[in-house]
């Protein structure tokens, strides 16, 4: 299974939803709290080109935020990406 990385903040309801969806797939993502580290925020901005959280990566593939993750799952693409 591919490594999943999720950039989050402490009080983000979309981050919680994304982690819940991933958990339902048996995935424990590497969670990086961007509030705790300006360096991690800069890393997220460089990788995603976005300022909002969550930002989710499956391997090196940028999925996007929670809405993007949920849409990918509804279309049946998340399982395939996780197991690629």
TrEMBL record:
Domain of life of the organism encoding this protein: Bacteria
Keyword Cytoplasm: yes
Keywords of this entry: Cytoplasm, Disulfide bond, Electron transport, Redox-active center, Transport
InterPro entries reported in the protein's UniProt record: GLR_AS, Glutaredoxin, Glutaredoxin_subgr, GRX_bact, Thioredoxin-like_sf
Glutaredoxin domain mapped to chain residues: 4-63
Family: Belongs to the glutaredoxin family.
Role summary: Has a glutathione-disulfide oxidoreductase activity in the presence of NADPH and glutathione reductase. Reduces low molecular weight disulfides and proteins.
NCBIfam families found in the cross-reference section: GRX_bact (TIGR02181)
Protein name: Glutaredoxin
Native source species: Metapseudomonas resinovorans
Lineage per the UniProt record: Bacteria, Pseudomonadati, Pseudomonadota, Gammaproteobacteria, Pseudomonadales
